[in-house]
Design goal:
The protein is α/β, with parallel strands linked by helices. The chain is built from 13 helices and five strands. The protein has a five-stranded mixed beta sheet with strand order 1-2-3-4-5. It is globular and about 50 Å long.
């Protein structure tokens, strides 16, 4: 697999112009109108490709994206995230920002940025995100007196940071750079997957925020998936859009992940 996604192609320019014209009134007057990584042609291109070059569908999705930014007040944290990223390199975790709250969330829901893939034959692969799902502790997080607002505030910053970093890498490489996501289900307990309060949080905040990441995922590796979860994964794989499910790779260990590189 080449894992190569070019920037705007000549054949896409007219459609991208049309999409930009469609959403211009929605962007006008917002702080994010000045931020190329958020509302520029590079970001619009992800929506256009994500919706199979359908301008009406891409425009509708982009308006939903803007509505979510407003709902979660993402414009208000943009400058804070930009400043935080200036002191980080690609190997550092974007889920940790200055402040005690950030460290608290990361201690219960660890996620590690393992660096950036830099391979000439796979120029579209960028940040590698490793999530040890079995190490998450939703009940302990709530038992410690923390709440949904704290978690959501951190997720908002993390989402904004990922978009900014991908934009920087895409410009630097002349490629549409995407994320390599590794979900490790080792030691995963059913109680964590069925935690009602966290499921509600996911539906109200995590899920909608994740939907702002159109065409951000390059490849998803699922490792150490327990036998009891494999049937559920197969159902999810069948229900996912073909474009999304084509990015899934289920492997046994991280050693096999390296083999894909």
């Amino acid at each position: 697999e080449k894992f190569s996604w070019p920037l705007e192609l000549p054949a896409e320019s007219a459609l991208l112009d049309e999409l930009a014209e469609h959403v211009a009134p929605d962007i006008e007057g917002r702080a994010c109108a000045a931020w190329e990584a958020v509302t520029g042609r590079g970001r619009l291109l992800r929506f256009l490709r994500g919706f199979d070059w359908s301008v009406p569908l891409a425009a509708a999705a982009f308006r939903d994206f803007l509505a979510l930014r407003e709902r979660f007040e993402m414009d208000s944290v943009h400058d804070e995230v930009v400043e935080a990223l200036q002191g980080m390199d690609g190997s550092q975790s974007y889920d940790r920002f200055p402040g005690a709250k950030s460290d608290v969330v990361a201690s219960f829901f660890p996620q590690v940025r393992c660096g950036i893939v830099e391979m000439d034959d796979k120029p579209g692969l960028g940040p590698v995100v490793y999530s040890p799902m079995g190490a998450s502790e939703p009940q302990a997080f709530f038992d410690a007196g923390h709440d949904e607002a704290m978690f959501t505030a951190q997720h908002v910053r993390q989402t904004e940071a990922a978009a900014l970093r991908l934009h920087e890498l895409s410009i630097a490489r002349g490629q549409q750079v995407k994320v390599v996501l590794v979900l490790d289900f080792a030691e995963m307990a059913i109680s964590k997957l069925t935690h009602k309060r966290f499921i509600t949080l996911h539906k109200s905040a995590n899920g909608p925020l994740n939907r702002t990441n159109t065409e951000v995922l390059g490849v998803l590796f699922i490792i150490n998936l327990p036998a009891f979860l494999q049937p559920l994964f197969r159902v999810f794989e069948k229900m996912a859009p073909p474009k999304t499910s084509a990015k899934f790779r289920m492997v046994r260990t991280t050693r096999l992940v390296h083999a894909h590189y």
